[in-house]
Design brief:
- The chain has two domains: 59 residues, DNA polymerase, domain 1 (Orthogonal Bundle); 282 residues, TIM Barrel.
- Strand 3 and strand 4 form a beta hairpin.
- With 349 residues, the chain is an alpha/beta fold.
- Helix 1 packs across helix 2.
- 36% of the residues lie in helices and 20% in strands.
- Strands 3-4-5-6-9-10-11-12-13-14 form a ten-stranded mixed beta sheet, sandwiched between helices. It has a two-stranded parallel sheet with strand order 1-2.
- It binds S-adenosyl-L-homocysteine.
- S-adenosyl-L-homocysteine binds next to strand 10 and strand 12.
Length: 349
């Protein structure tokens, strides 16, 4: 019989499974705590369980953990980038970043991505598969274990489109914010989406307290279509409408991400157009100087254009920040480490 992934189980499911082994519910609580609070990776660590129970558990279950294959530490700012191998050999990357407000981990939600954004390294190989809940959890757990530092914030901005793996994404949020687990406040979690309108509406109705970040990257539909195929499915107006609904349901201010590509979406005209789109909307704009990937010739906007773009938004009373670049020396931009690893594997056969 194939062993069951024990970290995938909710407490109620674990309680039921243990009942079948004639164990009391409090055992399930203890095991859940070992798995999700104390981040155990083997049953042997669970020292308050009898040896025979640990043996029974290891016959029936396994603790599936992401296996570290590469780790890079930025000399500039302590950002750490991790490449993990999953059970079927897929690789995913995750990033640890230190901020004044706490330690943040950026996780991947899929192996690869099918959204096809032109500037994104993760889109190049297409979608391999969705990640399981335990595979998303494991990225956070392993980073906290390896670094020995408490993770207080999560961003779901690594490889993949979280709303394209909606059910697992939602379960992940519940699990990581569960007080019986790592208990990370939903207010400290940000999920970034390219804007799958139907799913944004569905998520709004969950009334979670997470921050939604929308990858907008353009000030009109024509411009957006050139960067993001998803713009052929939904107009900016539809995306904004769904965002208003999200705000209405949750009271959470939306973040709009805008990657500045030289000579493409970084003009004063685009800044004005973006301002009028977002006028009166309680939101925040995060400007991201595009991170060039070698497969495409998009270039980073010059500093003076970035500043000018920001000034125009500010003049129009829109909250705006420029994303601080972390880990520039370690391929920390989305999907680049995974991509270079996979290219190397392919070459070496
Ligand atoms: N699929 C989700 C989350 C993953 S990408 C989404 O689209 O939002 C996280 C953010 O990084 C997105 O805003 C994405 O558009 C942006 N991004 C991807 N590649 C980038 C690059 N090379 N330079 C700058 N931003 C990039």
């Amino acid at each position: 019989m194939e062993k069951q992934d024990i970290r995938a189980l909710e407490l109620s499911e674990l309680t039921k499974a243990l009942q079948e082994l004639s164990e009391k519910p409090f055992r399930a609580k203890q095991i859940y705590e070992w798995l999700h609070k104390r981040l155990a990776v083997s049953f042997d660590e669970m020292t308050n369980l009898s040896k025979s129970l640990r043996e029974k558990l290891s016959e029936r279950f396994e603790i599936i953990s992401a296996v570290l294959v590469d780790k890079r530490v930025s000399k500039k700012d302590g950002t750490m980038k991790f490449l993990f191998r999953l059970k079927d050999g897929s690789v995913v990357e995750s990033v640890f970043m230190k901020y004044k407000h706490g330690n943040s981990v950026c996780i991947s939600s899929q192996a690869g991505c099918r959204m096809g954004c032109r500037f994104c390294a993760s889109a190049l190989g297409g979608l391999e598969r969705n990640l399981e809940v335990s595979e998303m959890l494991s990225q956070v757990y392993e980073i906290q274990r390896i670094s020995g530092q408490r993770v207080s914030h999560i961003v779901i901005m690594g490889t993949g489109e979280p709303l394209d793996n909606y059910d697992n994404f939602l379960k992940f949020i519940h699990r990581i914010s569960d007080e019986k687990g790592l208990n990370i406040s939903q207010r400290n979690i940000t999920a970034s989406t390219c804007g799958l309108v139907d799913k944004i509406r569905e998520l709004a109705e969950e009334r979670l307290q997470i921050t939604l970040a929308i990858s907008l990257h353009a000030s009109n539909d024509e411009m957006r279509k050139e960067l993001m195929p998803v713009a052929n499915r939904y107009t900016i107006a539809q995306v904004l409408e769904a965002c208003r609904y999200y705000y209405q349901c949750t009271g959470r201010r939306i973040t709009f991400e805008y990657s500045l590509v030289e000579g493409f979406n970084d003009s004063a005209g685009a800044a004005e157009e973006l301002s009028s789109l977002l006028k009166g909307f309680n939101c925040h704009v995060n400007l991201i100087p595009v991170n060039p990937i070698k497969e495409r010739n998009y270039r980073h906007s010059e500093e003076k254009y970035i500043q000018k773009f920001k000034l125009i938004l500010e003049k129009n009373r829109i909250n705006v920040t420029i994303r601080r670049e972390l880990g520039g020396d370690i391929d920390a931009a989305c999907g680049q480490l995974r991509k270079s690893y996979m290219d190397k594997e392919a070459l070496e056969g």
